[in-house]
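Researcher: We're teaching a course module on how sequence relates to structure. For the next exercise, students receive a sequence and then see the predicted structure as tokens, so they can try to spot secondary structure elements on their own. Here is the exercise chain.
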Amino acid sequence: MSHVVDASGDRNASVLKLAYYNAKCQDGNSLIDIEILRRSRSEDQEGNIVRKVGVIPFTYESRRSSALVEDANGDKILICKGAFSEILGLCENLRFEKKVVPLTESHRQELTLRSSSMESQGHTVIMVATRKISDDDIEDRHQDFSGLDSTLTVEGLLSFLNPLQQDARKSIDDLKTLEIEVKVLTGDSSAAAMQVCRDLNLFGEVDEKGELSISGPELERIRLRNDKQFRAIVKTCKVFSKLTPDQKGQVIRTLQVEGHTVGMLGDGVNDCIALREADVGISVSSGLDAAKECADVVVTRKEGEGLSPVVSGVRIGRIAHANR
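Model: And here is the predicted structure for the students to work with:
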């Protein structure tokens, strides 16, 4: 985790504590929740939830999750965290210097610029927002709290950065030499994904001028409208952002129909469908158990190794295939 800031851009530990409450109430099997819980423990920001009232689970369509908790005074608060743009669209207020004020267009622009700046450096940005809940709001809901995650108050932003492995760029170059085309399938924003790809030198000068990136919602609109165009985009595009797990599987199946042999490298729950669909699903020893169970191969890496074992596996596999 790289940034923990409030709506003003100042570091604020209370934002991390709210994120901790949310993560603690969820199943805790997402990489982001795991990192929030780890960071909270290291900074002694865990705190105690007096009572967990309920949750609105994360979905890849809404790209957010919410936890309804009750504090020591009996006050109930809904804590929502998720993708920046989706959460911002649900907010009507923000917390500024411990006061709740209306969220103006100027505030929206400032928050968007701050988020865009982080994403342009390859960070995944998460917004944390809250809403006070009355007993009337949840009466007769029977644990169905859907719809309560609206009219929210912006509390702050968290950002996460997975540093590139030392050998990542060379490994990408080696895969290109082996005539393997590398595509990026991610649930992150386009800006964050594109920056990582540039750091990896994934694109050449010609590529930079072409249609490189498409988002999941846009890809779905094209799929429903024109199957031929959908298949053409899947073949030519290199970066697929804001994808759902089902869409990752769709991309892989489409590439296979078009005659490609597809390997998939993933380490999270959202990669499971794609790992199963791929001709070779590859995970890593540090990945989540669900991803490793869905993979055909689990790579164990030495200190400092990144993608180089995958490159070695391709070379050895080709020799074995040719000699059989």
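Model: If you want an answer key for the exercise: The mean pLDDT is 87. Residues 317 and 323 are 10 Å apart (CA to CA).
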